[in-house]
Structure prediction request, 396 residues.
Amino acid sequence: MSDQNPVFIPGPTNIPDRLRAAMQVQTRDHRAPDFVETFAPVLEDTKRVFGTTSGTVITFPASGTGGWEAAICNTLSPGDKVLVARYGMFSHRWIDLCQRHDLDVHVIECPWGAGAPADKFEAALTEDKARDIKAVLVTHNETATGVKSDIAAVRAAMDAASHPAMMFVDCVSSLASMEFCMDDWGVDIAVSGSQKGFMLTTGMAILGVSPKALAAMETARLPRTFFDFSDMMAANASGGFPYTPPLQLIYGMRESLKMLFEEGLESVYARHFRLAEGVRRAVDGLGLKLVAESPALYSDTVSAIYVPDGFDSNALTDQAFNAYGVSFGIGLGEMNGKAFRIGHLGSLTDVMVLSGLATIEMAMADLDYPVELGSGVAAAQDYFRSHRAALVKTAA
Prediction:
């Protein structure tokens, strides 16, 4: 019966029964008129979640990593210079992807637990007198450390430097869970995926692309075939796909958007903040410490939590799974063995979060952690009781 337990990893997330039913469809003809009627509104409605009216939504059958690659290969050429900060596993992986594409990658090293360094971006862009830097790459929500970066501040830094570089943002673990303002923040490409805030299975890379980024395709010389924006947009214009689409995910996406809009995006964001704050109160109640360096950086979708000295975070997540059938996020990269992660995004309620907190407490007690059973749960309960939300069926 352990497969009935929710997962507390930062993605893939729990899939509501309503979305599983929506994806459980028989094979259909993706060149038939009724597919056009389904797919075109999905692209248009997703723009609301990105926070754009001027951008274009483009999807590919891939994970978020495929979205990263699509962003790079459609807009840049071999040898182009890009600026990126490394402050977690996913910013590190984006750096690796750029290096493999023969880009000239300038890396700003930051502590894991810090956010995007807007001041250092501004300094580097100001020093770039020849305007050789073509793009600034930012991870909005660093899933490995539970850090949310200030994208508006990065845009302000770019504007202060009067630099024409494009800004690409990884919002894989933030979109549809935390507010994202593509137009207001001046984002040129935002990269997300189906398996986190949209509460679907993995398999759809979802990108918001600005007119400036689309114009960059004219001079970009990195090779692209499967991930070609032009091919996809040409087919999308008539409601189709240049190759076989992930049909079940598109039907799931249609229903996911309905759920998000029924709950209301502002209510979705408020729910994620409330669940995250309950987890943060529990962490404090247990006497533990978040990896994120300050409250301004706290993510509303995932909390990375240091274990006490002398303990192994991997042993803790193993114990939670082996003894209680519940999955928590392991420590990635520099956090390996030092921290575990609680994902609190997607299809979750206060009650579900409390079950996860109770489970990790039991696993800690099993391993003789210096914690008192119930201390974290009680802190979260107090917060949830004083910050009750209206019951929303679509959030369950």
